[in-house]
Design brief:
Layout (H helix, E strand, L loop, with lengths): L9 H18 L13 H18 L5 H18 L3 H23 L14 H24 L5 H19 L5 H18 L3 H26 L21
Helix pairs in contact: 1-2, 2-3, 2-8, 3-4, 4-6, 5-6, 6-7, 7-8
């Protein structure tokens, strides 16, 4: 049965209303969470676009990539100002990976067709695991030298996130497990840095990752693979999964 376009879904409309309310309050300097200091508009924009990106990824809509690219720009500005250089640098890589994933979801399948949900092979998972360990060690060394304010956690989340994005670009279902691991650490890190709204965002991400894993598993088991609409952004169509 054909599903409605995502902009006609109730959950999308509710999220849109909440996002507009948050942006309005932040623009007016009235958005506060557990502090007298208002949440910056940059952080609020990061929150809104980040939640939208993960939501669209869960329902396998290719619009997640341009929204995610915009999200990376906002967080690049935010993290650079807080001397979280690993997270700031990660946003630059996210922008590049966003364009790659955008192409792959539309044309990365057999005979340049859309990708379908799949499982990563054992060899790929072992290679990704080895890269996470080695990459974290290297990033930690670099971040210490750069006077990063949280070198180990910043290094770990940076490398985990890159590995997760790599698997996501290939629609490997294991990407959700890496995102969930990174999000748990991010929640702690951003609360410690007093980015209260961003910490809340990553908790929302964690919950949405659980939902995404369930939806993609259902698509995989059903043999659909959640193939992306070949019309992509031109149609703005939603992929039916589950």
């Amino acid at each position: 049965m054909k599903r409605p376009r995502f902009w006609k879904r109730l959950d999308f409309l509710v999220g849109l209303a909440i996002s507009l309310a948050l942006l309005t309050l932040s623009w007016q300097g009235r958005l506060r969470i557990g502090s007298d200091e208002p949440i910056s508009l940059t952080e609020t924009l990061g929150f809104v676009t980040g939640a939208a990106c993960v939501y669209l990824t869960v329902i396998e809509n290719v619009w997640n990539f341009p929204i995610g690219i915009a999200n990376s720009v906002f967080f690049l500005v935010l993290f650079a100002g807080a001397r979280l250089y690993g997270d700031a640098g990660l946003q630059v890589l996210y922008i590049a990976l966003g364009f790659q994933g955008w192409y792959l979801w539309l044309r990365g399948g057999e005979n340049h067709t859309a990708l379908r949900v799949s499982r990563a092979g054992t060899r790929l998972l072992l290679a990704v695991g080895a890269c996470v360990v080695a990459g974290t060690a290297l990033a930690y060394f670099l971040f210490v030298r750069a006077n990063d304010s949280a070198p180990f956690l910043d290094a770990l989340t940076t490398v985990l996130s890159l590995a997760a994005q790599y698997l996501l670009n290939r629609k490997a279902i294991e990407n959700w497990l890496l995102w969930m691991t990174a999000d748990v650490v991010y929640v702690y890190l951003y609360f410690a840095k007093d980015f209260r709204l961003t910490a809340l965002l990553y908790f929302v991400f964690l919950c949405m990752c659980v939902a995404g894993l369930r939806v993609w598993l259902r698509a995989l088991r059903g043999g659909e693979g959640g193939e992306v609409d070949r019309r992509g952004l031109a149609a703005g169509g939603e992929v039916g999964v589950g």
